Amino acid sequence: MRSPVRWRVVWENELRLADHIELSDFFRKTYGPTGEFNAKPFGDYRSWAGARPELRVIGYDARGVAAHIGALRRFIKIGDVDLLVAELGLYGVRPDLEGLGITHSMRVMYPVLQKLAVPFGFGTVRHALKEHLTRLLARRGLATIISGVRVRSTLPDVYLKLSPTRVEDVLVLVLPIGRPISEWPAGTVIDRNGPEL
């Protein structure tokens, strides 16, 4: 039997050193099985990978951090349209809690995004997760999944032998918050104008 999960909404400035250490460990263990490179950003007690979130929704149970999702308000550019969004990222759920997952954390995050008065929540995901996210979010009306879009981002660090930007073919997850999905701008390239969350 699983212990109950309590959800905490926390602004980045409210996190203590102990929180960063616990989250860093959580991300290394959660992302590590998907590849050593995916866990690498979370070394040295770092609890973010690219851009640092503005706020986080963290689920805790008797064993510690159970789930996490971060948000950062930013302007993205789609074609000629500058659009305010709350970018969602740093999603993770402890492997022993399959089924708790993204639906619950999104339901906790949704009213937070409404209080922030953003028109849309925005995130990117790998194509391999399309069926999973469609089942958990799109069919429940929480989000729309858009394919055929490339997202241009800056790298979180500068390297002499790498371009400072990268372009990825990913799925775009859009949560209509303050405006209907019909007002999401059309376009095949999104400029994040910063590193991925």
UniProtKB/TrEMBL annotation:
InterPro entries: NodA (IPR003484), Nodulation_prot_NodA_CS (IPR020567). Keywords: Acyltransferase, Cytoplasm, Nodulation, Transferase. Gene3D superfamilies: 3.40.630.30. Its EC number is 2.3.1.-. One of its GO terms (cellular component) is cytosol. It is found in: Cytoplasm. This is Nodulation protein A. The lineage of its organism: Bacteria, Pseudomonadati, Pseudomonadota, Alphaproteobacteria, Hyphomicrobiales. The gene is nodA.
